[in-house]
Amino acid sequence: MSIAIDLKGKTALITGASQGIGAQVARTFHRAGANVVINHLGTPGTTADAQAIADELNLIRTDSASIAAANVAEPEQVKTMIAEVQARHGGLDYLVNNAAIIKDRTIAKMSYEEWDAVIGVNLSGVFYCCKHALEIMREGGAIVSFGSIAAIQGFFGQANYASAKAGVQAMMRVLSREAAKKNIRANAIAPGVIDTSMAATIPESVRAEMLKNVPLNRFGTTDEVANVVLFLCSPLASYVTGQTIEINGGWRG
To answer: Which of 10, 95, 176, 203 has the fewest Cβ atoms within 10 Å of its own Cβ atom?
Structure first.
């Protein structure tokens, strides 16, 4: 007997989904039957990338993917985006908080602007999206927010990023209690190093050192992360909430 994840008739909003892991999450949810809303920053580049993904998915299933511009660090833009989702889909079933930026520097050298920018997108943006998405989320929905291995390992030069991601993981534990009255589950994932364009900027010598900490001896793929997000939103994870799921190949550095 096979086990299938069927999200037909459901709507998923994925933030920061114009490329990388977010784009793969959108494709994975779409493959499971969901309608997907692809959030992007609203620049010409992200607009074009997001629209290309939506066009790709709409060729597979007509009118099943749309794009929504919003800087998640700006609460008014988030409110507008959520209102657009409500108008188009009548509500929301799944929120995936993927949008993130990095501005690495040691604490001694980090500017206030670098701190505020990363906290604004990676932590406050998750709060704004959760707060306003909950207003339109249907009972039995799910929220998955991206934490990071950085929140656990405390990598050099990532005080802003690690702090934000640790905050996200704590926020999901709180939200799992607050949203339970509507049977909405809230979880975080903590990916390790995943093969994306961002990871490609890591110097080769640093990548080699990182791999020494990974028992599976490779970095993860966007598919592997997206599949865990899909599981956490699916009925197969109906008793999983308030957790942080590590996706890191066994990293124990």
So the answer is: 203
What residues does each domain of the chain span? 11-192+223-247
Q: Give residue-wise pLDDT tens across range 178-218.
A: 999 999 999 999 999 999 877 777 788 888 888 999 999 99
CA–CA distance, 31 with 25 (Å, rounded to integer):
10
What pLDDT was estimated at residue 216?
Answer: 96
Q: What is the pLDDT of residue 214?
A: 95
Q: In terms of Cα–Cα distance, which of 100, 121, 174 is closest to 143?
A: 174
pLDDT along the chain (253 residues), means of 10: 90 98 98 98 97 98 98 98 98 98 97 98 98 98 98 94 98 98 98 86 85 94 98 98 97 81
**252: which DSSP letter?**
-
Per the confidence metrics, is the pTM higher than 0.90? yes
In which region does residue 74 sit, left (phi positive, over 0), alpha (psi from -120 to 50) or beta (all else)?
A: beta
What dotted CATH number matches 11-192+223-247?
3.40.50.720
CB neighbours of residue 197 within 10 Å: 8
- The reply to whether 161 belongs to the active site is yes
Q: How many residues does the chain have?
A: 253
Encode 154-217 in three state secondary structure. Answer: CCCCEHHHHHHHHHHHHHHHHHHHHCHHHCCEEEEEEECCECCCCHHHCCHHHHHHHHCCCCCC
What span, in angstroms and rounded, lies between the C-alpha atoms of 249 and 156? 21
- Name the one residue in this structure whose structure tokens are 């994870």: 237
Token pair 């998640």 is found at 72
